[in-house]
Design goal:
- With about 250 residues, the protein is an alpha/beta fold.
- The protein is about 45% helix and about 15% strand.
- The longest helix has 20 residues.
- The protein binds zinc ion (ZN).
């Protein structure tokens, strides 16, 4: 019942938001990969973005003022992956904190002697299970090509839907887990070998960190540079196309 109530509230709040077509165009121009989505699906993405904004609490950190363009841009990118999965998959948390550029998270780690070491970790984003998503914001044009912090962190959120971040999100009933593993495992192993050899793969080498990062980076590439993924790791592309219910390479 609460889920239905929440859905009704976010729809009602989205109904009240007025975004001019000029503003949509301005924001979407900064996100050229949205053109890989069939044009008839754009209204659905825009509508979902408004419901996303109605449902989430987004705050700027370190003095970053979040104007409507930034909010719309984050919402469009967060909703693109779940356009066919549905917004309810993001229902177990509300907070998003946005930093100007990369930011530092203080961490501590205990070694085998029990000595705690403290250090600063410079990151572009982080997603906490059941908690907020932290993102860095780059002005359009400032962002590193092929890197999409928003899609990356929201892919981690999808991955967490069934427990830890391990590169295995909750799959729909028509997708056998064995096929997912059969595509991702050999691709990940191949990728790690290529990164070890210092090969320029075209993909963010951070994907070699662990299978969870591999899934998040491959998801970024799926939406931002789909042909690169389809050529490099066709079986991974195929699984992501089925999981996300989209085929961006067809229009790239
Ligand atoms: Zn990550």
């Amino acid at each position: 019942m609460f889920a239905a109530l929440r859905r009704w509230r976010r729809r009602r709040a989205a109904d009240r938001m007025q975004i001019s077509s000029d503003q949509w165009h301005r924001v979407e121009t900064g996100l050229p990969f949205l053109d890989y989505l069939p044009p008839e699906e754009r209204p659905r993405l825009r509508r979902m973005a408004l419901e996303f904004l109605a449902d989430k609490e987004i705050h700027g950190a370190e003095g970053l003022v979040l104007d409507d363009d930034i909010l719309l841009s984050i919402a469009l990118q967060a909703c693109l992956p779940v356009l066919h999965i549905g917004l309810d998959v993001y229902a177990d948390w509300v907070g998003i904190v946005v930093y100007p550029g990369d930011f530092v998270i203080p961490r501590s780690i205990a070694d085998e002697d029990g000595v705690v070491h403290e250090y600063d970790d410079e990151v572009l984003g982080e997603a906490w299970e059941g908690g907020p998503v932290l993102l860095s914001w780059f002005e359009p044009g400032e962002a590193v090509e092929g890197v999409n912090v928003v899609i990356h962190e929201f892919a981690h959120k999808l991955d967490m839907g069934n427990g830890e971040v391990d590169g295995y999100p909750a799959l729909p009933a028509h997708m056998p887990a064995a096929e997912w593993a059969g595509a991702f495992k050999p691709a990940y192993e191949d990728f790690c070998l290529r990164v070890d050899r210092d090969e320029d793969t075209g993909f963010d080498p951070y994907a070699a960190e662990d299978p969870g990062e591999f899934f998040a980076v491959m998801s970024e590439t799926f939406f931002e540079a789909p042909r690169l993924l389809k050529t490099g790791y066709p079986a991974v592309y195929d699984q992501l196309a089925r999981y996300y219910g989209q085929d961006p390479a067809a229009r790239a």
